[in-house]
Specification:
The chain is α+β, with helices and mostly antiparallel strands and 102 residues long. The protein is built from 3 helices and 5 strands.
């Protein structure tokens, strides 16, 4: 499910209008994260690193409303839940498609 965001009452409307005119109106960051506890849990339980990381990332994304905003044309929608999918190569050279749902 998704809900259309009312741009007229959104406190970031001016930012959206300004940056929305850019060819690439998106941004990213790089940061250092202390993953000591997560790494230890992966080692202790034998979890695959990628799947554990993907799971924790999606939990964080779905806990913060602004991370669930998506631009569609000139409108912004808030999704109830953000999902992910990943293609994972296997040792036998076949691919495994992983769909994650929260």
């Amino acid at each position: 499910m998704k809900t259309k965001l009312d741009l007229n009452t959104w406190n970031r409307k001016e930012h959206f209008e300004f940056f929305g005119n850019f060819d690439e109106p998106f941004f990213g960051i790089n940061t250092t994260v202390d993953f000591t506890k997560g790494y230890q849990k992966i080692k202790d339980h034998g979890y695959p690193y990628f799947l554990y990381y993907l799971h924790k990332s999606l939990q964080a994304v779905n806990a913060i409303e602004a991370f669930k905003y998506r631009i569609d044309g000139d409108e912004v929608f808030i999704y109830d839940t953000v999902h992910a999918s990943a293609t994972i190569g296997r040792d036998d050279h076949y691919l495994w498609i992983f769909f994650y749902r929260i």
